[in-house]
């Protein structure tokens, strides 16, 4: 049931993310500004200064320190938040492992931006794909509305006692972060009902002091702790589906869980994409359907935990599928393609092609995706770079 106190306005993706953190009632924010993330934390700082948000903003000298601060506050049982992009995320790498290894349900926004050199501030998912094995859940947003709502859902999922893992919520640089769209600001009372206060089962208690993340040995519990993280990541699949369904029922949304399928019921060919490329692909699917072409779209929302079973089921009856990646795994195609190949191996014999597109913020146009479809129909499979210039 949709809340009667929601209100509609126009805002950028970064402002939408800031409102998501506000509605989630975060109590501590620590971040270091980096383009194109900067306006997220500027907006939150403004909210605190204007008494619109009851939270502490901790200014630090680096992204590494920002996440270290958030890790510390979460250990104290305080719902905390940070945001970054690109090289800032790379600078956080050590602390990403600390956050997940200490089982802290932090939510962090990442505005996807290319990794240099050369310097490039535009949309590219290489920054977060480089962090896919740090123990964080990862969700790629398609719209400003989803960017706001994912912050709220993210805390609910991460704080579940069967999960207790941090979550990254991604938006494409400038395409979402600095572009204005209609966004519904959720009613605070309804969000409070959906998302209770953080109840961390192992928070610091000064009356019962103990060490956290201390020394371990090969015969200790290190290996078992890592396996438990893997098991919790698998359990998160069910939690994601359940919490997305509950959010949809409460707020009148129609989000998929791990994936979203579009016109796949009778599709002979499938296009698989993440983020805003999926928006263009959905439009192209409609164009091609009007021409009698049986093509559909699978949009991957959650890259971690990866939806192997859901994609396998969706591709069962197609003739071929193409995976569009806005990043590249050097020597092996796109990272999404690599994950799907791993999931299909020995289970389903579907020709699969990798399409590298949009690197460094290059536009992924309607014609590009139409060309991808024609390549799928031709029966060729392999790795293809879309709209790439000759290197001189």
UniProtKB/TrEMBL annotation:
Pyruvate:ferredoxin oxidoreductase core domain sequence ranges: 267-369
Gene3D superfamilies, per database record: 3.40.50.920, 3.40.50.970
A molecular function GO annotation: oxidoreductase activity, acting on the aldehyde or oxo group of donors
Domain Pyruvate flavodoxin/ferredoxin oxidoreductase pyrimidine binding: 20-242
Oxidoreductase found in the keyword field: yes
Family annotation (CDD domains): TPP_PYR_PFOR_IOR-alpha_like
UniProt-listed PANTHER family: PYRUVATE-FLAVODOXIN OXIDOREDUCTASE-RELATED
Protein name: Pyruvate ferredoxin oxidoreductasse [POR] alpha subunit
Organism: Thermoplasma volcanium (strain ATCC 51530 / DSM 4299 / JCM 9571 / NBRC 15438 / GSS1)
């Amino acid at each position: 049931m949709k809340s009667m106190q929601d209100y509609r306005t126009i805002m950028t993706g970064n402002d939408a993310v800031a409102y998501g953190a506000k509605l989630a009632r975060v109590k501590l924010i620590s971040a270091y500004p980096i383009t194109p993330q900067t306006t997220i934390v500027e907006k939150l700082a403004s909210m605190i200064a204007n008494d619109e948000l009851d939270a502490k903003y901790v200014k630090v000298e680096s992204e590494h320190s920002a996440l270290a601060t958030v890790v510390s506050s979460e250990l104290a049982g305080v719902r905390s938040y940070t945001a970054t992009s690109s090289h800032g995320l790379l600078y956080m790498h050590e602390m990403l492992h600390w956050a997940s290894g200490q089982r802290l349900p932090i939510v962090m926004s990442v505005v996807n931006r290319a990794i240099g050199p050369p310097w490039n501030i535009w949309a590219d998912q290489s920054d977060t794909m480089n962090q896919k094995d740090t123990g964080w859940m990862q969700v790629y947003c398609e719209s400003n509305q989803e960017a706001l709502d994912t912050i709220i859902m993210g805390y609910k999922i991460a704080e579940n006692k069967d999960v207790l893992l941090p979550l990254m919520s991604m938006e494409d640089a400038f395409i979402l972060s600095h572009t204005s769209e209609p966004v519904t600001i959720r009613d605070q009372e309804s969000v409070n009902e959906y998302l209770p206060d953080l109840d961390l089962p192992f928070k610091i208690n000064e009356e019962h002091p103990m060490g956290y993340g201390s020394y371990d040995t090969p015969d200790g519990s290190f290996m078992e702790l890592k396996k438990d993280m893997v098991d919790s990541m698998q359990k998160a699949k069910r939690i994601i589906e359940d919490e997305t369904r509950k959010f949809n029922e409460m707020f009148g949304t129609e989000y998929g869980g791990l994936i979203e399928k579009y016109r796949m019921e009778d599709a002979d060919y499938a296009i698989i994409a993440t983020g805003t490329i999926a928006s263009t692909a959905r439009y192209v699917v409609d164009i091609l359907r009007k021409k009698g072409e049986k093509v559909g779209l699978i949009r991957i929302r959650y890259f971690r935990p990866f939806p192997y079973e859901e994609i396998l089921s969706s591709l069962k009856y197609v003739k071929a599928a193409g995976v569009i990646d806005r990043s590249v795994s050097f020597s092996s195609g796109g990272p999404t393609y690599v994950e799907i190949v791993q999931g299909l191996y020995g289970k389903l014999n579907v020709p699969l092609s990798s399409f590298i597109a949009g690197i460094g913020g290059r536009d992924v146009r309607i014609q590009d995706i139409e060309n991808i479809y024609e390549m799928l129909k031709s029966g060729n499979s392999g790795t293809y770079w879309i709209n790439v210039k000759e290197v001189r």
